[in-house]
Design brief:
alpha/beta, five-stranded parallel sheet, two-stranded antiparallel ribbon, 9 helices, 9 strands
Length: 273
């Protein structure tokens, strides 16, 4: 029996969900597949997973057509595979990311990893601080419509992969990716300081600090943001009282409701860490 591993980073659950869809498709074909959040493995464990698996996937959400910083750190910190390894990459996106799943191919190659296929999957936007058309779907029904289409795309992708015909999506779309990536990188430092806490809402539960992938939040009675945010939206999305502020303002729960999190009852944020 072949063995597969899907190494992924997920902020609010979208990429976890796609990784799980890939796993289901592989399991149905008799391939033993595991999904592994990169938050849960160190360098040596990741090296073992990669070497022990016949099929290796890496997945991430794109932020402004760019890789999230935790995924960059993870890939750059991998041990080099001296004999080389062929891998597959995928990204989740709101609509379009240009070369989002192909962008980091040179960094993969530096670790002895050659990308054989790269795929892009549209999922509901998780940027709850924005309104339509860039923000999340307004209803669960609309979100599930997007997710159902994504599940179909994953099924086609895995079938194509198994037939040896999977291709690299976005390989020649770098100019289109740069249109989003350039402005995103210019405002990144500023954006790292956009989140804070509303002391009137905060219950001091510490969940935001626990979920943060960059140790950007420390508990000093109240949570303190340290200015090195990775923009994953976990603290904003999963705070049980919506105490995380954006640009100094608390979320208007009466008008906007709670922030977007994945519409799948199986998903809990602790899965990621």
């Amino acid at each position: 029996m072949h063995k597969a591993v899907i190494l992924y980073f997920s902020g609010t659950g979208n990429t976890w969900w796609v990784a799980d869809q890939i796993k289901k498709q592989l399991d149905a074909r008799g391939i033993n597949a595991d999904t592994v959040s990169i938050d849960t493995v160190d360098t040596k464990k990741a090296d073992w997973w990669i070497k022990a698996s016949d099929i290796v996937f890496f997945g991430w959400p794109v932020y402004g057509s760019d890789l999230p910083a935790p995924m960059k750190r993870f890939i750059d910190g991998l041990l080099t595979i001296e004999k080389g390894k062929h891998v597959h990459t995928f990204c989740t996106q709101m609509a379009f990311s240009g070369d989002g799943a192909w962008l980091y191919h040179k960094n993969f190659e530096a670790k002895g990893l050659t990308i054989d296929s790269a795929a892009h999957f549209a999922m509901p936007s998780n940027v709850s601080v924005w309104s339509a058309p860039l923000g999340p779907p307004k209803t669960e029904e609309k979100a599930h419509h997007i997710m159902d289409k994504c599940a179909d795309s994953v099924a086609v992708y895995v079938q194509t992969l198994m037939s040896g015909k999977a291709r690299i999506q976005g390989q020649y779309s770098a100019p289109l990716g740069i249109l989003q990536r350039g402005p995103f990188r210019l405002m990144y430092k500023y954006a790292q300081n956009m989140f804070g806490v509303d002391p009137a809402r905060c219950t001091k539960c510490g969940l935001c600090a626990k979920l943060c992938p960059s140790s950007n939040i420390k508990m000093d009675d109240l949570p303190v943001h340290l200015g090195k945010c990775d923009l994953c939206m976990r603290c904003y999305a999963f705070c049980p009282t919506s105490a995380i502020t954006y640009r100094g303002k608390s979320r208007n729960l009466d008008k906007k409701g709670t922030p977007y999190t994945l519409f799948d009852k199986r998903f809990q944020p602790d899965i990621l860490i």
